[in-house]
Amino acid sequence: MRILLILAPILAFLVVMLAVGFAIQKRSESNRAVNFSKDYFIGNRSLGGFVLAMTLVATYSSGSSFVGGPGVAWLRGFGWVYLAMTQVLAAFLVMGVMGKKMAVISRKIDAVTVIDLIRVRYESNTLAHIGAVFIVVFFCGTIVAQFISGANLFAAAAGVNYTFGLFLFALVVVTFTATGGFRAVAVTDTICALAMLLGLGVLTYAILEHGGGISRIMAVINTQPQMLEPTSGGAISVRLLISFWMLSGVCTLGLPQSLVRNMSYKNSKSLHRAMIYGTVIVGAMMLGMHLIGVLSRGVIHELPAGGTTDAIMPHLIVNYLSPVLAGIAIIAPLAASISTVSSLLIASSSSIIKDVYQHVVERHGGRADQKKLGLFSIATTAAIGIVCIIVALNPPTVIVWVNMFAFGGLQTAFFWTFLLGFFWKKANTTGALLSMTGGVLAYCYCMAAKIPLGGFHAIVAGIGIGFVLFVVGSLTGKPNDEKILKLFFPETYPDGTKIELPSRA
Amino acid sequence: MSKMSYKEKFIQMNKEAKSTWIVTAILIAYWWIAGFGTAGMDYTILQMPGWFVLSSFGVWILSIVLVWGLTVKVFKDFSLEDDEDETTRE
To answer: Which value does ipTM take for this structure?
Structure first.
């Protein structure tokens, strides 16, 4: 009985996700007949401010924002919430700096993926294909890891079998993403973000109720003085905080799953609104969830037997909530995983179809038939998803590594390539190639070999080396074609300079 | 909606990007000062450590206010498609 009551809200939620996917597929038929890729991979550039903000934040927040992070906050105290607030930039920075330039240029050259923009800006198929490979590898690693953590959570909190939980929620994500495309991803992301906020509310209520109010909870926490310090008694170093300002703050500007959203919105007003809404929501989620982690110390005094801090949130949900509320609370981290997976899945598929397959077909003079392209795209999205599910059934160790490298690896690969490519006229192909490959190699090496960087995270090395390589390459290599520079830097040419559009992306 | 040529849009977009970076720098500075700057003082807000409320709730509220300010004062509403000049017509 208890299991059924917990499962009821979760199943209802999954059914809504599926319904949205199918409804959007039906509605998109006419757009897809004209330009399949533009509809399927970028939602016909139609997102308004609210949906843009929600899809950006929901994609950014993964299962770890709801389980891993709050668990560590339970252990470390307020210092960990303070550290988590470095994510306050994650919504407005990428939109405020990159949003409009990407939107304007994408419309000029008909770009639908971040790789399209890189290919045109740097006139290099090699660079475009390296970028596409990084996206597919890092995204798939993350998808598998999200599947594993989602299924584990499902199993622990709802009391179902791991395989059953995995199939249930993973198949739903893969199905609505494959059929509905980017627009379905954006709409379900919005529903997921709302579900996360609802879960946050339920958990706050549960903790205040069971902890006997804020005074009683604080009385417990006050017995652990290190929980009241920004450094958590020395456990959180200043170098770690600086690293987090890069990894989860400034460098989030380079995440391709965030960047691609800059090509999907309708008009200037949508972007302005999304910057405000996105900042409100990302702050509320990060502050709220991590603070819940700290305050749960007033309810859970010791680590559950045999568990790590990852067990804190599931433990709280299972033991302190009525079955229906538990079901609602479990939806929050599941929704966080679902919204991350769906976005990475559609972007991986676009890298294979648009950046490699369609590009090769068109280079050989052909034009892909829209209907054939449609079937092929849907099949590819589904296939990537199913492969990731199968891998998650019995995950090899390498997945742990790929997932651990993914976040910083993507930032290292794309941060300078985009920022300098759009704001520094001298940025050229040599610089981008050196920076993208050298930076990622340096980052992965520092992570894998656990190089001690005096307490700094490997992202500092990746981004630093990436920058140096970019500048050296750009100053020594050949500048890009004048035609491209006029398109990306018209402000540096006299008034009335004719802008020639390069061959379409 | 402002009417702009392709070139004018880029001048405006550079301005918008620059002010977004300035807001970012202000937020980072505020966070360090409000957090570590007041951590030595023994005071509480809403029964939680004062430095924490000031820095973490503070940086969130400040970010909303500053980003709102950006979109009102600096960011301009212009067409992302059509340009008010001939330079980009084919």
So the answer is: 0.97
